[in-house]
Amino acid sequence: MGMTNDTYPCSPREELDDLPHFPRLCEKIRLEADGRLHHELHANLGKGMDLWVCQFLGIDYDDLKFRVLAGDSNESVLSWAKTNGVKRDEEETKWFRSYMHTRGFRDDLADKLSQRCRESGFEGRDDILTFMDYIDADEGRL
Fold first, then answer.
1. Of 106, 14, 108, which Cα lies nearest the Cα of 53?
2. Disulfide: which of 48, 76, 117, 119 matches 72 by Cβ 3.0-4.6 Å?
3. What is the distance between the alpha carbons of residues 26 and 48, in angstroms, rounded to a whole number?
4. What pLDDT is recorded for position 49?
5. Which residues pair with 19 in a beta bridge?
6. What letter would DSSP give residue 39?
């Protein structure tokens, strides 16, 4: 049986140490390396939410990817990022968590979210207000 590239990672709502999307970011890297990452997700590896998390942590995506592919656990990778990146206090983390959970809701990405919903046949759904909602709907979790 051959490997297929049709596996979605966990929800972007999954968190590690109050950091949303981080488990998904690591899982996407592992799935892509195994040839199992859903083909629709390849184009945005290291971009979008992946990039925002790396920017918040103050680390380079390729450095994080190297740690993940070296076999480090999510916890170990996050610990490394916090040691080698930008030091964030609790308030900054709370702000970033809120930022990630609300992207697309009445902000600069609202039009893009509406476009994605139209393209996916989700027009008129009142349960898709943010990009996290959209991703969960698109991947069959919502």
1. 14
2. 76
3. 14
4. 97
5. 16
6. G
Length of the chain: 142
Domain assignment present for 96: no
CA distance 26 to 29: 5
Residue 120 and residue 82 in one domain: no
Largest CA distance in the chain: 48
Which domain does 15 fall in, by range? 1-87
What pTM, to 2 d.p., does this model score? 0.93
Does the pLDDT of residue 13 top 50, yes or no? yes
SS3 (DSSP) at 83: helix
Helix axes 131-138, 110-120, angle to 10 degrees: 20
Q: Which two tokens stand for residue 121?
A: 């046949």
Residues 83 and 107 in one domain: no
- CA pair distance 18, 27, nearest whole angstrom: 17
